[in-house]
Amino acid sequence: MNDIPQIPLLIDGRLVPSKTKEWHDVINPSTQEIVARVPIATPEEVALAISTAKAAFASWRNAAQSTRVRVMFRLQQLVREHAAELAQLISHEHGKTVPDAEGEVGRCQELIEHACAVNSIQLGEYAENASSGIDVYTVVQPLGVCAGITAFNFPIMLAANMFPTAIACGNSFVLKPSEQAPSAPLLLARLALEAGLPPGVLNVIFGTADAANTLCDHPDVKAISFIGSTRVGTLIYRRASEAGKRCQSMLGAKNHCVVMPDAQADQAIEHLLGASFGAAGQRCMATTVAVFVGEASKWLPDLVEGARKMKIGASDDRTAEVGPLNSKQALERVRGLIQSGVDEGAELLLDGRDVRVAAAPKGNFVGPTILAKVSDEMRVYREEVFGPVLCVMQADTLDDAIAIVNRNPNGNGVSIYTQDGGVARKFQNEIDVGQVGLNVPIPVPVSWFSFTGSRGSKLGDLGTAGKQGVQFWTQVKTLTARWRMASAAPAALHSSINLK
Question: Which listed residue (108, 116, 284, 391) is catalytic?
Answer without folding.
Answer: 284
